[in-house]
Amino acid sequence: MRFLPTAARLGHSLNTRCIQNFAYSTLAPPIVETLQNPPPSNSLITVNGHIKSLRYSKNVGFIDISDGSSSKTLNVVFLSPDKVLERNRFKVGQSLSVTGRWIESRGKQAYEVQYNLDNPEHQIKIMGDVPEDYPIQKKTHSLQFLRTLPTLRHRTSTLASILRFRSKVESHLTDFFNHNHFVKVTPPLITSSDCEGAGEQFQVESLKKVSSKGDEFFGKPANLTVSTQLHLEVLAQSLNRVWTLTPCFRAEDSNTNRHLSEFWMLEVEVCYIDRLQQLTALTEAMVRHVVKAMRSDKASFFDLTEARFNKDEAARINERWETVLSPEAWPSMTYSEAVEIINKVKCKGRSKGRMEWGDSISTEQEKWLAGEYFKSPVFVTDYPAEQKPFYMPPSSEGVLVSGKPTVSCFDLIMPDIGELVGGSMRQSDHNKLLEEMKRREMNTAEIDWYLSTRLNGSVPHGGFGMGFERLIAYLGAMENIKDVTAFPRASGLCEC
Ligand code: 4AD
Questions:
Q1: Which residues form the signal peptide (predicted)?
Q2: Ligand 1 mean position to 421 CA, how many Å?
């Protein structure tokens, strides 16, 4: 009996799942699908994937196949290894298509594929060969070494599982925003404005000069976006609640394990709010939702943790998820209170370094505050105005330290990684916004399109941006965000 794909076996008719069914009925089932819906024992089945490992004795041979759809591999078992290996020169890394008998296994896994050389229906086809020095072998490779293999590293269990995890997290975030009536929007990535005003933009120019437009393709300087916030603010005024997940680009020359030149930012903008606490509550609910959803999806949790050879890492994932899901609401304090704690409290006999009011809280201090002092994600609010961009309004009364202007903003600080989210209320009053821009000696003409929103039915609003790679690195217990993005870009790093 030949194994039919799921939809055909279940006899699905056209219904709301018809697109999914169509895919299943025409595409070769991936290993994850075969394992989740195993065909009947003894049916004929075809599996495709790369050889992960290969071993044989005198009487029997085993090939472990992985197609990247699951951290689980499929075992192909064959008798008469001398004859099989005479016909096929198997090597780790080759891509194979194997047709054989699906049987219950006597080994660790529930099922295996039995290939019988003498059965004319059975087949092994090497679809793609590899060179003798194929670098990914069955042993632990350091993540640093794997970064030197930009086109192959995703074939390792850990990095493949992180990309699957990333995909799941995105879909849980989509559920969260759909459920809460947010519209997913698509702001531009090429812009003539510098949202954060930090001068970290990459400029966009055409290689071909377009004479009709003068020297510049867009007729003015254009850059890759550092944050889509300004455009999201425009869209929120029309749609009430919006969100997006897009690449952002920053020419920061800091080659750290938490900075990329091209990273993905999840950004949110909400209208008709007047308190910062509404934004921090939304942020907390969003991150908690992702972890709860991942927790209840046992298969995905298993997929992520099973792919780690080091069991301490699997434990760390669990620990971090528990930290996020703590029964108490995450603590929140102002910048001034955080400075006081950092200056007063000693940790293991050592102070976390003296700070003057107005200094930036360093990454090390952030990690200490969240990881050691509170042992929880922490919101720090109301930073000094001079540390933040032009669009943030003054803090609400009651949090002002006399004579020291602060703004209505927050950072979400996580244990181990520091800042994950940055957000604020937005100045919605035209004159106040203009005044602040002039105080900062900004070119107001360049951003008049943004200012104009404050003259056309402006509404109170606010929002935030979350570094997506930082979220994945934290929840997936990865040290370096270069390992949670498929093709990392950083200063001096753009290999392909
Ligand atoms: O705090 P940031 O700079 O905030 C903004 O850009 C706001 N305009 C967002 C908004 O309110 N819509 O960046 C937001 C987050 C940071 O907290 C950090 O997690 C991440 O983006 N981030 C980076 N991630 C990786 N590599 C970099 N170079 C990053 N720079 C910021």
A1: none
A2: 7
Q: Is 442 helix (H, G, I), strand (E, B) or coil?
A: coil
pLDDT given at position 309: 76
* Contact yes or no for 248/263 (Cβ under 8 A): yes
* DSSP string over 216-276: STTSS-EEE-S--HHHHHHHHHHHSEEEEEEEEE-------TT--SEEEEEEEEEES---H
Give dist(CA 407, CA 430) in Å, integer: 17
pLDDT tens, position by position, 182-200: 999 999 999 998 888 888 9
Ligand 1 pocket: which of 263, 269, 380, 481 to mutate (most atoms within 8 A of CB): 263
CA–CA distances in Å: residue 292 to residues 109, 170, 267: 28, 14, 21
| pLDDT above 50: residue 5 | no
Ligand 1 contact, 64 CB (< 6 A): no
Q: Is the CB of 160 under 6 A from ligand 1?
A: no
What is d(CA 189, CA 176) in angstroms, rounded to the nearest whole number? Answer: 24
Render 342-365 in DSSP notation, one character per residue. Answer: HHH-EETTEE-----TTSPPPHHH
Q: Is 21 in the pocket of ligand 1 (CB under 6 A)?
A: no
Share of the chain above pLDDT 90, in %: 79
For residue 425, the SS3 value is: strand
Q: Give the model confidence (pLDDT) of 449-464 as tens digits.
A: 999 999 999 999 999 9
Cα torsion angle, 177, 180, 185, 191, sign: negative
How far is residue 410's CA from residue 278's CA, in Å, rounded to a whole number? 11
Q: How high is the mean pLDDT of the chain?
A: 91
Residue 20 reports pLDDT greater than 60:
no
What is the CA(224)–ligand 1 centre distance, in A?
Answer: 14
**Cα(115)–Cα(76) distance, rounded to whole angstroms?**
7
* Residues 196, 202, 203, 208, Cα dihedral to 10°: -150
Distance, CA of 96 to CA of 131 (rounded, Å)? 15
Measured CA to CA, the distance from residue 244 to residue 183 in angstroms comes to 8
Predicted TM-score of the model (pTM): 0.94
Q: Band of the pLDDT at 350, cuts 50, 70, 90?
A: low
Q: Note the pLDDT of residue 17.
A: 44
The C-alpha atoms of residue 441 and residue 435 are separated, in whole angstroms, by: 10
